[in-house]
Amino acid sequence: MTYEVRVETPSVEVYRHLRVAAGLSPKSAAAAAAGLHGTWHAVVAYHDEQPIGMGRVIGDGGTAFQIVDMCVLPEHQSRGVGKRIMAALMQQLLDHAPSTAYISLIADGAARHLYAQYGFAETAPESIGMARRL
Ligand SMILES: CC(C)(COP(=O)(O)OP(=O)(O)OC[C@H]1O[C@@H](n2cnc3c(N)ncnc32)[C@H](O)[C@@H]1OP(=O)(O)O)[C@@H](O)C(=O)NCCC(=O)NCCS
């Protein structure tokens, strides 16, 4: 199968569909619209002109960035699309973020093996990732 990774921010509809279909938590249309507006960089992966994956970088544009919303539809997983998405996001960071930028992410399950290929390492025990939901 052939895939194309395009630099673009997903629409609210595509974003909400891809997240849920890939097993990530749902977001309301209002939350998605507000969040997508704050995108620093994003890509959408296509197969047969249909969106099948995405990834985004959010952040302040200078000091701190986070990789979020990484997902590929189950029927297209394990075919290298996730790696192409990560490579595109990392290239943008390497080209446009200051060398002092701190780039973080939260890896769910086996996705840690993907991120490790792009230089991400566990922060523990020196630093512990912390999170909460409202
Ligand atoms: C995580 C996800 C985006 C990866 O996308 P993908 O297209 O399946 O990934 P790729 O085919 O490009 O493979 C990525 C690499 O991850 C690694 N990997 C993926 N799953 C793995 C597993 N279960 N065990 C070990 N390594 C694994 C592999 O090393 C692979 O690299 P390799 O081909 O050099 O061995 C996708 O599986 C997904 O959408 N999962 C559900 C949503 C999710 O959990 N998103 C991540 C939130 S942090």
UniProtKB/TrEMBL annotation:
GO terms for molecular function: acyltransferase activity, transferring groups other than amino-acyl groups. It comes from the Bacteria. Keywords: Transferase. Residues 3-134 form the N-acetyltransferase domain. PROSITE patterns: GNAT (PS51186). InterPro entries: Acetyltransferase_Butenolide, Acyl_CoA_acyltransferase, GNAT_dom. Pfam families: Acetyltransf_10. This is N-acetyltransferase.
